[in-house]
Amino acid sequence: MPDSAAPATGEPRREQLLNAADRAVQQFGPGASMNAIAAEAGITKPILYRHFGDRHGLIRALTERHTSGLLAAIRAALAEPLERRDLVEKVLDTYLAGIESRPQIYRLLTHPEPGDPSGIGSALAPALQQIADEITKAVQGQVDLGADRELLAETWGRAISGMVLAAGDWWLEQRPCSRARMVQALADLLWGRLAAAANLPVPLTTNHGTEQT
Amino acid sequence: MPDSAAPATGEPRREQLLNAADRAVQQFGPGASMNAIAAEAGITKPILYRHFGDRHGLIRALTERHTSGLLAAIRAALAEPLERRDLVEKVLDTYLAGIESRPQIYRLLTHPEPGDPSGIGSALAPALQQIADEITKAVQGQVDLGADRELLAETWGRAISGMVLAAGDWWLEQRPCSRARMVQALADLLWGRLAAAANLPVPLTTNHGTEQT
DNA sequence: CAAGGGTGTTACCTCGGGTAACATCAGCAG
DNA sequence: CTGCTGATGTTACCCGAGGTAACACCCTTG
């Protein structure tokens, strides 16, 4: 490696390829083929594979570029010195604003696999949808939520089912605790323990590893 | 259609194929190829396509069989006359027990797309993982949760990120309300409004459409 | 004995991920 | 100038998976 500090000619090409991949994904969605991406870049497949190894590597590089932005925003929001309720709202708003600004990219981040080119509506797992509906109905029928009843119930139906899906997914994979404890942890969350818990004093001793890029 | 009420010879074969597909999925995971499924059934591909149209149809038939069970269990749990907190726990436990009993099938239900045969750990979206980590760190650092701190924080990290993912997904797709209202709805949920809201009287006038199979 | 419907097969097509082998052009050492 | 190295690029191919066409078998019914 003769040149000591001149990646200025090497990096840009990779960036350029990623930009092309970006454009291709914007056009064709997350299922854009390697051929399509290569064509968008004005080159052919093998070059992509030389740079990124395989499709997974390309997608990963692509997602990392975008997640870094969203993640940084969320980190910043989480670090703001707000009341906890305000903090929660701030983070939620940051996330929603992030996905709102680039829907195609968002789809890539959350649904990296091709997905069906036919049905647009199949956002999350089909089973989840039905569970969400059940929860919605239950909340609507059993909980007094005032004027916003319908919207709240439906939102909560999605939210709770997604919450349980993600947590259950992780639990199945890792088995960090018994099922009963898991149930307690999730019920506690839904039960407002996040609101009820006392604030910890601002930590000055240990930095919780918020490494920035 | 000469035979009036004798699908007894037609249905069983289809059921039998579904059983074979079940076995194949248990063995090879959700990405089981049509060839593999056909082999497990002791036949070849075209028969599968005759019965189910395409892979999507097969997967759908398979998921419907299993969701009906899980969904019925959740419905039953939701309908039990328990205190709301107990009800929440009951439903959570029902769901977790359901996915625990058949992990491979669960994967099929929630991650119908092939997924990477190489990396096992990629359960949910890669971006989500990092967001979950951030939330975990934030909760650990800012909220006093007592002895279960670590487990609760990590569980909540996954749970909250999954919740926001699902809700955001739905919101992006449907745009049922403004972003600000969405933020409020989600923050309210995390804030214990589910716990704080009054019970609705048991509805006797309208049946909320809990149709059973 | 046909006719029809279900079950089954082999052989093929298409498309997408992934790779091997070869061509080219830059810069740099001798 | 020659020749090495390393990056960029190409064509042509392999493989596996979804999906289909065409043909064969059996069994029931008229």
What is the N-to-C succession of helices and strands of chain A?
Answer: HHHHHHHHHH
Structural class of chain A: mainly alpha
The proportion of strand residues of chain A reads: under 5%
Mean pLDDT reading of chain A: 80
Helix content of chain A: 55-70%
Rg of chain A, Å, rounded: 22 Å
List the quaternary state of the chains.
homodimer
Question: Treating each run of at least 4 consecutive H or I residues as one helix, how many helices of chain A?
Answer: 10
Protein architecture, described:
2 copies of one chain form a homodimer. Chain A is mainly α and 213 residues long. The two termini of chain A are 26 Å apart. Helix content of chain A is 68%, strand content 0%. The first copy, chain A, is elongated, with a radius of gyration of 22 Å. Chain B binds a DNA duplex (30 and 30 nucleotides) through residues 2, 9-10, 13, 33-35, 43-47, 49-50, 54-55, 114.
List descriptors.
homodimer; mainly alpha; disordered C terminus; DNA-binding; 10 helices; 213 residues
Describe how the helices and strands are arranged.
The structure is a homodimer of 213-residue chains.
Chain A: H1 11-28, H2 34-41, H3 45-52, H4 55-79, H5 84-101, H6 103-110, H7 126-142, H8 149-174, H9 179-190, H10 193-196
The structure holds a DNA duplex (30 and 30 nucleotides).
